[in-house]
Amino acid sequence: MRSRSNLVLIMIILVTIVSTWISLPSDISDIGNIKEDNEIYVHEGLDLQGGLQVILEARPPDGSSIDDDVLNGTRNTIERRVAGLGVSEPLIQTRGDNQIVVELPGVQDPDAAVNLLRETALLEIIDTQGVPLQVGTRVNTSLGAATVPDSSMNPVPGASPEASPSASPEASPTAPPVATVEGPMYETIISGADISDAFPTQDQFGTIVVGFELDGDAADTFFQYTSSHIGQPMSIVVDKVVINTATIQDGISGQGTITGLTSREVTDLSLQLKSGALEVPLEVVQSRTVGPTLGQDSIDKSIIAGIVGLLLVAIMMVLYYRVPGLLSIVALLVYTSIVFALFKLIPVTLTLAGIAGFILSIGMAVDANVLIFSRLKDEIRTGRSIRNAIEAGFDHAWPSIRDSNIATMITCVILYWFGRYTGASIIQGFALTLFIGVVVSMFTAIIVTRTLLRVILNYRPITDQWWLGVEHTKDTASGVAD
To answer: What residues contact residue 43 under an 8 Å CB cut-off, 6+ apart?
Structure first.
């Protein structure tokens, strides 16, 4: 038992050291730029960092309708635009069946950002002049010059306005004022308005491909071009950024396919083509700006609340449970270090509601120790030795701790799903931080506290039950450790 407890203690110490190093600010603990290179830092949300929240509503023309594919395709286009803004920790998600919620922490020009977001995506298929273009390349086309973000829109120092070649075909924005991208002018063959439909399908070999259909005159134009350029590349461009380049295999008239893609790429490209074809107009139904001063004030007050709460809990636990209470505070510090490290590693975008969920989970971590220590005192009063009472206290309290925490985690999952569906990032932040906190609290309450008590008993046996929070009675013989 002693050797096993020592091994667990060593593991706990190592985990605590690593998590503490991760939790500390990079400017005082980074070694060899490990944190900077791996982007290990606190990811602040809109209400902490300040910025812009916009709710966009799709308003299709009369006779048209919005389905999930179109809404998701429109969201993907907005993600591409936001990526070009260089915004740190943006949140773009659908809400209901016709709205998109966009949160842009750190944006310095809200009006320009709103104008950018509400513009309809421009999808084009262009003649690449015989040169295959890489995905992510920003180009000029005959329907208008490509643009790059103005530096005043970029809140991230050193962020590049160029789209990343590894970015998925889902997001890459631009913002006024604009500048023309250097490079050749590519001729637009057809635009998204000419595509009547796009969908995943299979070719004659059973391979999944993208199928698309063209409207009247566009079908003739596209057939003439593809018939005279067989074997040459052409590119699909959304908002002047290349999202796909394909080689023309045959003349394409009213219907065609795009092959050579993975299953995920087929789905993504189908959404892009369909969204570009319908060109759903977006209206701003709500816009809210959060100042950085308010965000910093929220952080300061949250830190004060957390420190005060921890101190009060520590005093209560030590006065009421004595040695176990003191060890629970050590376990609570380990818990705080691990949770905060996970927030950086996952990463979790911290919001004010998320911090509230974290602080609530601290209380739940202490609650587990209260159940254990209360049961421990009851076991001592029944006549068990101190060592046996400690083991029985943990064993008998575990079912209650397990069931209550699982119930809380299920509630967190439901809240997170609800927040995602309604676009309420506040609910999501609260649910996610609380879920992580509850999971870690089960580890620290059962493993850390129990191991520390075992180690103390192994090296400094407790012979007086008073140190465990049990007042002396006339018969104290049962309090002697065996």
So the answer is: 88, 89, 343, 344, 347, 348, 349, 350
Q: Which two structure tokens, joined as six digits, stand for 234?
A: 């052409």
317 with 366: CB under 8 angstroms? yes
Within a 10 A sphere around the Cβ of 301, how many other Cβ atoms? 12
Claim: this prediction has a pTM higher than 0.90:
no
Residue 18 has pLDDT above 50, yes or no: yes
Q: Could you give the angle at which helices 386-422 and 449-459 cross, rounded to 10 degrees?
A: 160
Res 387: pLDDT: 87
Structure tokens at 166: 């590894």
pLDDT band at 152; cut points 50, 70, 90: very low
- Cis peptide upstream of residue 61 (ω within 30 degrees of 0): no
Phi, psi of 197 (to 5 degrees): -165, 155
Is residue 143 a contact partner of residue 124, using CB atoms and an 8 Å limit?
yes
- Contact between residue 361 and residue 405 where contact means Cβ atoms under 8 Å apart: no
| Residues 217-254 pLDDT 10s | 889 999 999 999 999 999 998 878 888 899 999 898 88
> H or E stretch including 57?
strand 51-58
CA 6 to mean position of chain CA atoms: 37
Geometric angle at alpha carbon 74, from 235 and 423, rounded to 5°: 150
pLDDT digits (tens, 9 = 90+) for 346-377: 988 888 888 888 888 888 888 889 999 999 98
Count of CA atoms in the C-beta half-sphere (13 A) of 298: 20
| Number of neighbours of residue 156 by Cβ within 10 angstroms | 12
Interatomic CA distance for residues 273 and 268, integer angstroms? 9
Alpha carbon distance 182, 237 (integer Å) = 17
**pLDDT tens figures, 388-403:** 998 999 999 999 999 9
Let me know if 100 is exposed, middle or buried by CB neighbors in 10 A (0-12, 13-18, 19+).
Answer: buried
**Percent of residues, the chain, with pLDDT higher than 90:** 28
Query: For residue range 104-119, what is the model confidence (pLDDT) as tens digits?
Result: 888 877 887 887 777 6
CA 96 to each of CA 62, 66, 113, 339: distance values in angstroms, whole numbers, following the listed order: 20, 11, 23, 32
- Confidence category of residue 156, pLDDT binned at 50, 70, 90: very low
Q: Give the span between the Cα atoms of 394 and 482, in whole angstroms.
A: 18
